[in-house]
Design brief:
The chain has one domain. It is built from 3 helices and 5 strands; from the N terminus they run βααββββα. Strands 1-5-2 form a 3-stranded antiparallel sheet, with helices on one face. The protein has a two-stranded antiparallel sheet with strand order 3-4. A hairpin with a 6-residue loop joins β3 and β4.
């Protein structure tokens, strides 16, 4: 049976378009969400759910004073839930060794005059 790793990413979908976007009129959706999805997908994560990060408006009661206050939902925050197959010990060891080699190469490049 396959083992899975899960990751929850909170995304603020409120987007302030810049001047260039006004002219390009992109139809690919919210660029903030698109960047998050592309980044996670590039790292092997598969999106399995996308839902509001906080439930609808609700009342909370203070535990000491018993006063109630309204907590409004944030319409801009969403959770994106991703999964990918867990690494085997061999795969993890190969990845760690590859990362170490990459860091050594980066250090060697920065040392050369």
């Amino acid at each position: 049976m396959s083992q899975w790793d899960y990751k929850i990413v909170t995304i603020n979908i409120q987007h302030q378009p810049d001047v260039l976007e006004w002219f390009s009129s992109s139809e690919s959706g919210n660029p903030t969400v698109q960047k998050a999805l592309d980044s996670m997908g590039d790292n092997g994560w598969e999106l399995i759910a996308f839902l509001p990060a906080r439930p609808a408006d609700h009342l909370l009661k203070h535990p000491v004073s018993d006063s109630e206050f309204l907590v409004q939902a944030d319409p801009w925050l969403y959770h994106a839930i991703f999964k990918k197959p867990s690494e085997t010990m061999e795969e993890r060891q190969q990845r760690v060794e590859s990362d170490r080699l990459e860091r050594r190469l980066q250090r060697a490049k920065t040392r050369k005059p």
